[in-house]
Write a structure and sequence with these properties.
The chain has about 130 residues and is α+β, with helices and mostly antiparallel strands. The chain has helices at about 10-20, 30, 50-55, 85-90, and strands at about 5, 35-40, 95-105, 105-110, 110-115, 115-125. Belongs to the CRISP family.
Length: about 130
């Protein structure tokens, strides 16, 4: 098992992306080299760890070696179980992580405007 270490460059790129307030993975060029998880919420305050726990809890829908069975058609219409956040968290070769949080005003999340959304971006890398 590979242990993860905090990476300030991944943190910097996560911060840059969180500041865009775009509810999509990106930037596209960087995604060729890294993995990424996104989380957003508004309303009732909660810690960022609640997103990380939700990502991990997708383990219940993961069935090795068939992860494609838990990847619904997203991001436009999600139905069925999701486990891609979980697989990103536990990916065997990921050894570096960097995350950032930003407050986004009027963030568009799946077609709805969220006032004062808390946006979490985590980037993962094997090197």
């Amino acid at each position: 098992m590979v242990s993860s270490v905090w990476d300030t460059e991944l943190e910097r790129t996560a911060e840059e992306w969180a500041e865009t307030c775009l509810w999509e993975h990106g930037p596209a060029g960087l995604l060729l080299q890294i993995g990424q998880n996104l989380g957003a919420h508004w309303g009732w305050p909660r810690p960022p760890t609640s997103h990380v726990q939700a990502w991990y809890d997708e383990v219940k829908d993961y069935s090795f070696p068939y992860p494609q069975e838990c990847d619904p058609y997203c991001p436009f219409r999600c139905s069925g179980p999701v486990c891609t956040h979980y697989t990103q968290l536990v990916w065997a070769t990921s050894s570096r992580i960097g995350c950032a949080i930003n407050i986004c005003y009027n963030m568009n999340v799946w077609g709805q405007n969220w006032a004062k959304a808390v946006y979490l971006v985590c980037n993962y890398s094997p090197k």
